[in-house]
Amino acid sequence: MNKQLHDSDSEIFRTAMGDVEPLEANRAEPYRERPPPVPRPQPEEDPAERPEPLAESEVETHDYLIFARPGIQKRVVAELQRGRIQPELEVDLHGLRVAHAQALLKDFFADCRHRRVRCARIIHGKGRGSDSRQPVLKCKVNYWLRLREDVLAFVSATRRDGGTGAVYVLLRNPDKGSQRRTQS
């Protein structure tokens, strides 16, 4: 369909466009890299408002251990409980003194990080050999694991892997958060 403009419409258009100047360039402005955003200044934290670290007396140790950080999916914890996430590395602490077990556990987690282990098994024992008949290492492991930022979740192992005398530990991906976006 071809519409014809009336002479009066053409005259109105020319009058309206009379003082318009043509553009010098008819191409789009070339891409230029933008500077990175400037972060907003964060208000300084009042030391009184800062949450205190977890005290060992606040951690209850039951026969069956289960812990997951906020944001960990229930499905992942359920898979861990069923033993469907295979432990790639394990350490046996039962029968050790607390100080030796803590040092060994520290080295174990460094090895896990180096090997990029996602799931590990820690055998802490059931505490039947201790003087107080209380599971000393189990209580300590329960507390120590909650303090570690690289531990996402842990649960008592299945019966075939030690039952309540061992835990499966789900570890944070060591590469997560360290990846930077590269601009091309």
Automatic annotation (TrEMBL):
<feature type="compositionally biased region" description="Basic and acidic residues">
    <location>
        <begin position="1"/>
        <end position="12"/>
    </location>
</feature>
<feature type="compositionally biased region" description="Basic and acidic residues">
    <location>
        <begin position="24"/>
        <end position="35"/>
    </location>
</feature>
<feature type="region of interest" description="Disordered">
    <location>
        <begin position="1"/>
        <end position="55"/>
    </location>
</feature>
<feature type="domain" description="Smr">
    <location>
        <begin position="91"/>
        <end position="172"/>
    </location>
</feature>
<dbReference type="InterPro" id="IPR036063">
    <property type="entry name" value="Smr_dom_sf"/>
</dbReference>
<dbReference type="InterPro" id="IPR002625">
    <property type="entry name" value="Smr_dom"/>
</dbReference>
<protein>
    <submittedName>
        <fullName>DNA mismatch repair protein MutS</fullName>
    </submittedName>
</protein>
<dbReference type="Pfam" id="PF01713">
    <property type="entry name" value="Smr"/>
</dbReference>
